[in-house]
Amino acid sequence: MSDSSWGAPPHAGQAGYWGSTEGGPVQGAAPAGPAYDAPEAQQTRPMPIVPDVPAYGGDQDEDRGAARLGGPSFRDVMYQAGHLPAETQNPEPMPDAPQTPPAPQKKSAGRDLSAAIGVGVGLGVVIIASLFIQKAVFVGVIAVAVVVGLWELTSRLQERKSIKAPLVPLAVGGAAMVVAGYVRGAEGAWVAMALTALAVLVWRMTEPPEGYLRDVTAGVFAAFYVPFLATFVALMLTADDGPWRVLTFLLLTVVSDTGAYAVGWRFGRHKLAPRISPGKTREGLLGAVLFAMAAGALCMHFLIDDGTWWQGLLLGLAVAASATLGDLGESMIKRDLGIKDMGTLLPGHGGIMDRLDSLLPTAPVVWLLMVVFVGSG
User: Fold this and answer.
1) Looking at per-residue confidence, does 349 or 132 come out higher?
2) Prediction pTM value
3) How is this protein situated with respect to the membrane (predicted)?
4) Structural domain boundaries of the chain?
């Protein structure tokens, strides 16, 4: 509104907005009698219509102890009455107080590295010692890892999904599968796999039929996922240079995981599969490929009979791909189950299955490429 709508500032003896200076009637109050129609009263403008405001207790009440003023603000009224200078009508907003920038957070590796390194070194000593002292001892190590992995997997399935995959036939059949693969080769492994699946079907018949198909399907999947894939490690061991083949397989898988972890943690910016595993990055995958290919070239040249460096490059590339897919595959299982780790047996690593996730699908890949490159030995 313009200033003229509110009238000029009051003169001495004239009623102001808040009342007469001489104790006269308050402006805006309806005067009694005909004096209101007198010409002198035309100099006094009526109070503007004030829009209704919510009663006390509405959403707008910020201070319930303060009186509400309808219509124009107190500052506008005092300016019209001449009690405030013009520059105070629309004061400049106060600048925002300077905010202290948050302290940069230190990038975390995401796990207990000291515990992870200690457990990893301990496992490496046990594996290498059993691998080169006696092949049969290493077969026993594989069988124990398979049984523990099956226990972790079936326990999580029952806890999170109420899926009762029978552990007893899986554990017995899984250990037998590894031994049969070492003793009788691929044919023995397939026969043991078929018998294990049959044992799962029969064992589950001793319980009520509700959920039978779900439970036996999970049992057959567990038999294939853990012991059958692990059998290819035993198949590698049967060659004359079997311990060196197994060591190459383990080294390439570990180097691939380590390269992906180190490069992804330091340089990772672009997510690889955010819906499956948010921590994995494309830069980490590139690190896995480079590290594995370099390690593969060295291992095939120095450790494997009749191996060449270019075969090692291809082997490293295949290992990086299979290890990454295996890691993502178990991440899908854990995401479906709503868990972070399959177990807590290995401090800094999780459970046995959290270490076998990349090894299991890599074993048949390395076994096959070794046979193609240098024969079954």
Assistant:
1) 132
2) 0.70
3) Multi-pass membrane protein
4) 134-238, 240-377
